[in-house]
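A common beginner's mistake is to predict each chain separately and then try to dock the pieces by hand. The better habit, illustrated here, is to supply every component at once so that their relative placement is modeled jointly.
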Amino acid sequence: MLYKFDIKTKERDMVNITKLLIKAIKNENFQNGIAIVYCPHTTAGITINENADKAVVHDLILAEKKFFPKLKNYLHEEGNSDAHLLSSLIGVSETIIINRGKPLLGIWQSIYFCEFDGPRERKVYIKLISEDKVNPKRTI
Ligand code: ZN
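With all components supplied together, the output reads:
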């Protein structure tokens, strides 16, 4: 099943969207397979990183600005080539294994929507693909 979620972002942001995946899994009592978490944007991304110390998110955003600044000699007239670059570097999706109704994330891992050119209203799609339908004879 395909899920679509709307989220609002700040100028530079990392929004923890793990709960959206949990919501999708619970909605259909999904058990085993994979989830694709995807955003249809060219100046945003999806990543997995630490959820315990909020300083990690702060430091990642700080490093993005330091190592990928807005350069005056970029040609793209919209002026957000730094955001396009980060979108390609981080990527716009993550694939997460779902095992017995739970995402196989490490205890310190969460899924983040990364905003590189906000504030904006953004979309996140989550697609759940069941292993049970692909391999109905699975016994474990
Ligand atoms: Zn642009």
